[in-house]
Design a protein that fits this description.
single chain, mainly beta, Neuraminidase, Immunoglobulin-like, 4-stranded antiparallel β-sheet, globular
Length: about 400
């Protein structure tokens, strides 16, 4: 059954725009890596673990930690992980760093939890996860860590659980939500008490944006392309998404997203495309670190100075569209759209493939569409203007 959403009147903000000058190369890492993690602790940026590929596609996991000293602008080696790890979960509470699971030196999934205490300068093994897990996403909501998706070794499949770790008691819980679609290699960030999950892979790459709040999930938005392996970070209520893999090709694209107003904007393209990089905001600069390109590992680091973000067209009337569509689609489906001005309707499948495009005029638009040959699944509306701005976007 094809699922569509008949949407009532909704106000949609125009995209936002920042005056970004462009990415610039930075001092490269001492050691090339992808599938690593990055955190800011005090006046230092740490890049932890990861994976390296070299001659004849040989791969090894890394235990090394590199530290960028904000005073000198140079990389040095810090206290290494107790064991090599890649594609793990990472989070902080204050200056304490938590590393969850990942892939170990033997290429097997791990259930270890390591914690770094800056006062002692030591990594400590504090316990085990419920199951060995890798390629998942971790966010902190309140004082607990939430682990979404990933590959669950015990069932040899996508992880259907949302695991919750309480570091104050060193205990685990799990949440099962029927509406949750498990996936790997997605990007995730938490703003306030809400987690946002972007893209990933579930029997194919996805362009979904999912919101998690109060143990419920909902489809929130879509990305311009189906993509996985993105670098993600956030600061001051703004989420930054950079690079990734789409259709088997490394990407140089980037976006920023303001959840409070559901505003999107584009970042300049990276100098070098990549996937499985890591990202962090450090001293008002956006860092994209390492990554993989064409099966080779990168030492490259690029930096973008963050500027203030101003709402485009601030103070004017926001665009309003009325969209009426059958749910599910029928053999001959009539879609009615009331548009306040000229625009373009595009319909995409969950993997980002365009299945319908129609020009909209001001006023009432009645479209008759025969979705012959389309498989059952989730499809998305996108309404945009000539400048490529997203004016309406719903599943």
């Amino acid at each position: 059954m094809r699922r569509w959403l008949a949407v009532a009147t909704i106000a949609i903000s125009c995209c936002v725009r920042g005056g970004y000058a462009g990415w610039r190369p930075f001092v490269p890492l001492r050691q090339a890596r992808y599938g690593a993690g990055a955190v800011v602790v005090g006046d230092s940026l740490l890049v932890i673990g990861g994976e390296a590929t070299w001659h004849h596609h040989r791969t090894r996991r890394l235990s090394t930690v590199e530290v960028l000293d904000g005073l000198t602008g140079t990389w040095r080696y810090g206290e290494p992980l107790p064991e090599p790890r890649a594609f793990f979960g990472l989070g902080t509470i204050g200056d304490t760093i938590f590393v969850f699971g990942g892939i170990d030196s033997a290429g097997q999934m791990s259930d270890d939890v390591f914690v770094f205490y800056p006062d002692s300068g030591e990594w400590i093994h504090v316990g085990d996860m419920p199951f060995p897990l890798s390629h998942f996403s971790t966010v902190r909501l309140g004082n607990s860590f939430f682990l979404f998706g990933g590959w669950l070794e015990s069932v040899g499949n996508f992880n259907p659980y949302i695991f919750v770790f309480d570091p104050s008691t060193n205990t685990w819980d799990s949440i099962v939500i029927p509406a949750w679609v498990p996936r790997i290699d997605m990007a995730a960030a938490a703003i306030g008490d809400t987690a946002f999950l972007f893209g990933g892979i579930y029997f194919g790459q996805l362009n979904w944006v999912t919101k998690f709040f109060n143990s419920t999930v909902m489809d929130f938005d879509t990305l311009p392309m189906a993509i996985s392996g993105m670098a993600i970070t956030h600061m001051d209520g703004i989420i930054y998404l950079i690079s990734g893999n789409s259709g088997g090709n490394e990407q140089s694209v980037g976006w920023y997203f303001v959840p409070s107003s559901q505003q999107w904007g584009e970042l300049p393209d990276l100098i070098s495309s990549r996937s499985y990089a890591t990202a962090a905001v450090f001293e008002n600069n956006l860092f994209v670190i390492g990554g993989r390109r064409c099966d080779w590992t990168m030492r490259s680091v690029e930096v973008l100075e963050l500027q203030s973000i101003e709402e485009e067209g601030s103070g004017r009337q926001l665009s309003k569209f009325k969209v009426f569509a059958p749910n599910p689609l029928t053999y001959e489906s009539r879609i009615t759209i009331v548009a306040p001005h000229e625009a373009e309707l595009s319909v995409y499948s969950a993997n980002g493939s365009l299945v319908l495009r129609r020009r909209l005029h001001e006023g009432v638009n009645s479209l008759v569409w025969k979705p012959i040959g389309l498989p059952s699944g989730v499809y998305f509306y996108k309404i945009g203007d000539e400048g490529g701005r997203w004016l309406y976007l719903r599943r």
